[in-house]
Amino acid sequence: MLRGIKIWTPKAFTLEPYITSLNLVCNYTSAKSATNSQQLPRLPVPKLDDTLRKFLKSVQPFLNDEESVKTSGLIKQFNSNMGVGPKLQELLVQHATKHQNWLEEWWINTAYLEYRDPVVVFSSPGLVYPIQKFRNESDQLEYAAKTLLAALEYKSMIDKDEIPVEMMGKNPLDMCQYKKIFGTCRIPHEKRDKLSYNDSKYVTVIHNNHLFHLDLWGSDGKKLSQQQIIEALKTIKKLSCNPNNEGVGILSSENRDTWAKAYELLSKEAVNRESLLDIERSLAVLCLDRAVGVHDARSDWQRRTLAAAQTIHGGGAASNGANRWFDKTIQFIVGEDGVTGLTYEHSPAEGQPIAVMTDFIINSINKGSSKAESSASPKNPIKLKFKISDEVSQMIEAAKTNLDKLVDDLELNCFKYDKYGKNFIKSHKFSPDSYLQMAMQYAFYRLHQTPGAHYESAATRMFAGGRTETIRSCSPESIEFAKAMLDTKADPKLKMQTMSKAISAHKDYTVQALQGLGVDRHLLGLKLIAKENGIEVPELYSDAGYVRSAHMRISTSQVACKSDGFMCYAPLVADGYATCYNPRDLDINFATAAFRRHPDTGCEPYRRALEQSLQDMHDLLLLNTKSKL
Ligand code: COA
Questions:
Q1: If DSSP codes are grouped into helix, strand and coil, which group holds residue 374?
Q2: Ligand 1 atom, smallest distance to 432 CA
Q3: Domains in the chain: how many in total?
Q4: Measured in angstroms, how far is the CA atom of residue 427 from the centroid of ligand 1?
Q5: FRET label pair with 186: which of 49, 120, 575, 608, CA 20 to 30 Å apart?
Q6: Which of 408, 443, 462 is the last residue of a domain?
Q7: Which CATH number fits the domain that encloses residue 216?
Q8: Is the four-CA dihedral 416, 351, 473, 575 of positive or negative sign?
Q9: pLDDT tens, 36-68?
């Protein structure tokens, strides 16, 4: 997801004295991604005429006639011999010849590392695993140990290139993101963060806001057994039975510049430097969370929503919000009363590889106890020490207040829609994803009677180093469809026609986005190349068409996994909604979010509108089928 577009010169806070050969701190990406061993094609630079044509169509829902004429004029001017468009295009094509993927570095910097709002809520998604019923501490720790062992097995498959290459049709997808899941940590720096890639044999465990180093291999080089990990976790719990009110982890939930300042202050002490480096180099974090009353919730959606909150922000400072290190790519969460899942820092990877790993881990846990080797000489867990100055202590207090504000602001509603799933949609010969996207368009229009600019992520992993392109789901066709559906006098046949047209327009855009031929990344590239060359950003970017169509009030992502899990995240804009969904054969898991601070949006009405839209579309299909018989 794109949050901010700024170009800054990195001003690094140097860590070099503490870097060993195991550890690599990079501005944007690592040597791990610099190779293209899969020999994948390069991301194309779309043709300027094509992008501008698609762009003009996509802004129509947001403009009146007069504005539309103005935008058309600006596009013509931009694309004329006298305009700056062709010059920028030429520069972008030149830039593309010098990079394996012309967008990769720009994207990771502008969408992630330079983005200054906290990663919590604004960037890092949560992923909820099926909620467990733990009877006691042993159950919790057994689940945690199984999670770690399954994760280690998965990491070993990644290292040996044994993860089956994902395919899109006949095209293999770039698997580089898998290599960045374990051992990666984002490091706060003023203006632009860095990523640190590492390989190691231990994890960081957090309990009661205390941090520990837990070796998963013994001194004899043998991996710990499940029982040995359980014993180590018991020791950790004993060593941290009282909550640590000065848990430094909460600082990682702060605005990135604030966290960078705190990090710099912490790093003045050798003991802190050692602990920070230890966390950065670990494979992942395991958060042993306190109970949150998940089984007291009256309904399934309330349990899911509570679990989602824990995976996104930890429920605030008094709950598990300080029991985190939000900069680590993967933080597994195993709560005392059965909330399980993970939170992940988004910059190194998209949700889909994380969801694939989730299926592996959940299957592996369900298979039962593993008969892995055991070590004759397991090492004791080590508590990480921090020396907290008064200044940092005050920053920790401020971080608690700030996190609590974020928690209060984010409304979530996560639910299983169980009336139908992908199979029903496919049986009516529609693309499930496009159908669901149109259900969201219809729901938004039903609620707000105005078009909602709508972001959907499409994977561009067919290309080396590919991440995502935006599918602009709001189209003239989607609005025509929503209007027809809401018109009580409209003929069902007309409704059906508009629905088919809207779904097929979405599918067309999707196919182009998957081929790297969408609008948004190309326009971003043209803007960034202008800035790099000291050329003024063209007026097109401040025009109503661009501004309104890029104010993404509906931010959506399909993150598919076979398990009954789901990913969740926050809206992109204050007056927006987020919808992450996992369409399964017979049902669909939805995670919706809105900001409480905005009076126009709310999860409950949005959920009702979405469910009603899905029902209406279902009924329309059945009616249409019957009328054909
Ligand atoms: N009739 C019948 N079946 C159809 C159909 C039709 N008209 N159109 C599609 N289908 C089938 C497909 O063959 C597919 O079948 P399968 O389940 O056997 O594989 C299934 O329906 C799903 O296809 P569809 O819903 O069209 O699209 P998709 O699942 O490929 O998803 C995207 C589309 C854009 C979401 C996907 O390509 C993508 O990019 N995913 C990654 C998104 C991402 O990056 N998210 C994370 C961001 S953090």
A1: coil
A2: 25
A3: 2
A4: 14
A5: 575
A6: 408
A7: 3.30.559.70
A8: positive
A9: 668 999 999 999 999 999 999 999 999 999 999
